[in-house]
Every structure is written in structure tokens, then in C-alpha cells.
Amino acid sequence: MGWSYIEQGANLEHDDFRDFYHQYLGMVDVLNVSDSSMDRIDMLDDYGAGTVIRTKLRPGIELIVADCRFYQSQTLRFQSDVPMIELSFWLNGASEVNLSGHHLHIQNNQCQLAFIRNLEAEMCYDAKEPMLACEIRIAESVFRELVDAFGGDVNLDMNKLLGSQAVRVFQQAIPPAEEQLVRQMLTCPVAPPLRKMYLEGKALELLAIYMQRLLFDVDSSTPGRGRGLRRTDLDKIREAANILACRMEQPPSLLELSRLTGISDFKLKAGFKELFGTTVFGYLRNKRMERAVFLLETERTNVYEAAIAVGYSNPGHFAAVFRETYGINPGQWPKKAGFPGNSLKLPFHEGGAESR
Question: What's this model's pTM, rounded to 2 decimal places?
Fold first, then answer.
């Protein structure tokens, strides 16, 4: 099934930015929007289960959390001429998306940073598994105000970023540190009067992290590295790193990774050393260990499950690598960390996406 609509209002600012999206959601008949002032929007029973929660953090900045599932695969088509920046995180679920000619395959543990001037989108949602996604939307006018308030930079001007393009999209795997920030937004462990303050701080922190990494070629974990690489090679090496992070359960071989990214295996090995200070395998091992720590701490996953989740079929080998990396056995980590752990529970509502 598909829907089509055309969004209106090219020069919307601040509060109009939010009202505009309420009008959009009201035209999509899988959602029950009973009141345009409501932040909670329920899916209609005939189509699926769950909710979309929308929170205005300030005029022109929104946080949208979708915790739902479709009973059948769905396709949504739309157009927009509202300039904005979107930073979205997919923690669960899958989707095929076409954004003004940019095709994206979205899967678990991926994020997208998009700069949008004019948008023609087609989004195909898979009904096989529940969807849990978090999206930060910021109006172009607010983005400009934030940049100007701190001195500004020509590199962050929307016209410079987009050039002649209608949309510019960056996609990568979500590192464990940023995934934890996203999940902190979802659990929001502060009193209700402080929630918007807390959520806005996390949202802007995430936006700054990804813009620093993707626009300035700077990763806070690798300061000063990669300066000797050409931009085209740097992009390919980052793409290779994202592939490894997304496919750590069954990673490609070095030769396959070289083929997928269009860079020789020699340049790939040299580039990883230059950019990340380690080998291709060393980078994969580090990402596996970071992910394992997150699962042990936050998800309260047992050692066997964590080993399988990050690509180790032999738990004994996993434990040896973990011990070499962190100095303790993985079974001891949650106690050492003193982390209470949570299964994901959204603070905004009770319940979530349940199978029919």
C-alpha cells in the first residue's frame, strides 16, 4: 500500500516547523492523530501497533521516536520544500529509502545525517521486525542561529553544504558511545520538568559529534589522524570502516572489502594505519570489543550472547580477546562497571510495539 502527499510552505520557521509535520502525519492514514497538539500518535489497529512520539525541544527543534511495527510492508511517498537538517538513528528495523535520488538501505544500528533543501522521498518499511528509530529534526533557520551564535563557519552554511544538490546524506554505523547517548535520550533519567532540557542537550551533542566527524574529517577518538590521505581515499576508508562495523558478525575479507569500496588492499591497509592507528583486523577487533562492552553493560547480555552478537563463534576465544583488551574476564565487566543496565523502556509512554 502507498500514500502520496505534497507538503506546502517553503519558508516555515520555528513553531510552524512543528505544525507543518502535524499536518503531514494527519494525512498518513496509518496513524491516529486525534489532536494536533498531541505528542503521542498511535498507529491504527488495522495497520500495526505502537506509537510515534514527537517532542518539541524548542521552536524549530524536534525529537521523534518511532516504536512500532507494521503488520504488512508499507510504502510512503512524499515531497517537501522545507529546509532542514535531520539526524536519525535506527536501533531496530529495516527500510529501503530513496531521498531525491539517493538510495539508502537502512538496517539495525545505522544512522543518517541529512541536509535537505527540497525532498522527494520514497520509504519502504519492512514488516518482518519491530521498528525502533529516533530522529532529531532542526529547522535550517535554527541551525543557522546556532552556528552564528558561536562565530559560525562557512563550511556549515547550507548553501555551501548542498551546492546544487537538493539533499546531501551521510550514512554510517552507530558507534557504541553514540548508541549509548541515543539510548540515554530514550530512557531520559531525569524528572519531567527537566526532560526537554536534558533531551535538547543530548540532541545537540549528537549533532555536533556527527557534523565534526563527517564534515571536518575529525573523529574525537583519532585526533590529528588521516591528514596525509586524499579526500577520495579518506572517504573510501571510512566507508570500509562502516562496513566492518555494520557486518562485524560476518565481516568481509580484506579483498572483498577492497572490492566493495573501490580501493586497493594495499591502500586500505595503509589507510587504516594512518586514520585509525591500527590494522584493518585491529579496527574490527576494537569495534567488536566496544560493542561487547555496550551489550554487557546496557543490555545485560550474557557472555555467550555477546560473543555471538559481535562475531565470535567460540566464547573462549572471545573471552581471551576481551581479557587481553580490558584486563578482566567479560563475565566480570558489569560488576566492575557498576552499570545498572536497562531493557529499553521509553519514558514517554507505556507499552510499545507488540506482535499482533
Answer: 0.63
